[in-house]
Amino acid sequence: MTYVSFPQSKPLDFVAIGRLCIDLNANEINRPMEETMTFTKYVGGSPANITIGMARLGMKTAFIGKIANDQMGRFIADYLERNNIETTNVVTDNTGAVTGLAFTEIKSPTECSILMYRDNVADLLLTPAEVQESLIAESKVLLISGTALAQSPSREAVFQALDYAKKHGVVIIFDLDYRPYTWKTSEETAVYYNLAAEKCDIILGTREEFDMMERFENNPEKNDQITAAKWFDYSAKIVIIKHGKEGSIAYTPDGIGHRAKSFPAKVVKTFGAGDSYAAGFIYGIMQGWTIEKSMEYGSAAACIVISSHSCSDAMPTTDQVNDYIERCNRGEITAS
Ligand SMILES: Nc1ncnc2c1ncn2[C@@H]1O[C@H](COP(=O)(O)OP(=O)(O)OP(=O)(O)O)[C@@H](O)[C@H]1O
Ligand SMILES: O=C(O)C[C@@H](O)[C@H](O)C(=O)CO
């Protein structure tokens, strides 16, 4: 059963809009931040990580975003280009804005947190006029990510991108990517998340992210089926609700809750799971695979990233994902 059809005639597979940032991941793992002294620098930002994941899987990708006019901004642009991600719509800020930083704390494989430095960041300064209609028109998929909705003008830039995608028959995917610190009030957050989600074909988020959006709804038991059903009255064809290592469930308008097997992992840190899962899942669904097989692929990609030190740099190729699945099936990988 095919739930989403991708416009095959379009030359570009995937374009994402949103933040391009820097991750500084603790080298001394299993320690609190207070005792962490050194970090390794990687490109970060959830939509950037997903795009890098899609590129590693062999998809033709592009990014729409704004970078600071400094060494960090140039590091990001260079990394995207080296990963074959088209950067014609990566705009350089000229107001002195800075690159967002995410310092990661790896206290244990299950206790990880992120300290974000996001004052006056360039990514939130992308304007609607800077979004290239022609780039979106030529892509099969547009991915939006919730954090870009937190402030103007980036918020309007995302809605502009959504309008272009609708106009040109591009499949729209929303990774909720809710990061509380970029928002001012919970009401504002829920309003803009809901307005954007109404326009999307595939919505991916954790149970907690959907809870945040449901502040105006009546779903006291946090029932996944009720959560998903609302979006089928708008544009959605697939709603995925993620539950960490318990796996995820994909709901479709026919009332089916699709589940896939998850894999064991030797976990180094938990962050990056969602981004790699998204890349693997979207790749699979774009190949015409079943929802279950696509979810399985996303789960395996997630295991590879959470077993590694970085998010972006660890995004796997198809050979790496296939190899991981085969090794799990042979019982060669066990959970940490
Ligand atoms: N400890 C784990 N072991 C195996 N698979 C995992 C584990 N944690 C996450 N996954 C896989 O990754 C998928 C997405 O994870 P999760 O629900 O934690 O997303 P997320 O909260 O968006 O991630 P992130 O921490 O990157 O924001 C899960 O559905 C599961 O397949
Ligand atoms: O999304 C961010 O800004 C930070 C990410 O790059 C980070 O590594 C992460 O949280 C991935 O889920």
Question: What can you tell me about this protein's structure?
Answer:
- The protein is of the alpha/beta class.
- It has one domain: 3-Layer(aba) Sandwich (UDP-N-acetylmuramoyl-L-alanine:D-glutamate ligase), CATH 3.40.1190.
- 33% of the residues lie in helices and 22% in strands.
- The protein contains ten helices and 13 strands.
- The chain has helices at 46-56, 71-82, 133-137, 154-167, 186-197, 207-213, 224-232, 273-286, 291-306, 318-329, and strands at 12-17, 21-26, 39-44, 61-67, 85-92, 101-106, 112-117, 139-145, 171-175, 202-206, 238-242, 248-251, 257-259.
- Strands 5-4-1-8-9-10-11-12-13 form a nine-stranded mixed β-sheet, sandwiched between helices.
- Helix 2 (71-82) links the parallel strand 4 (61-67) and strand 5 (85-92).
- Helix 9 (291-306) packs across helix 10.
- The longest helix is centred in the C-terminal third of the chain and has 16 residues, at 291-306.
- The radius of gyration is 19 Å and the shape is globular.
- The chain starts with 11 loop residues before the first strand and ends in a 7-residue tail after the last helix.
- The mean pLDDT is 96.
- Ligand LN3RO5KU is lined by residues 21, 23, 44-46, 49, 102, 114, 271-272, 274-275, 311.
